[in-house]
Amino acid sequence: MLSLLKEIRFGAPSDLVFKTNAKGIETTEVNRRNYFSAKFKEVKAALELGNEYSIYSFRHTFITKLFRELRKERTELETFDLLMKVTGHSTLKA
Question: What are phi and psi of 23, to 5 degrees?
Answer without folding.
Answer: -90, -10
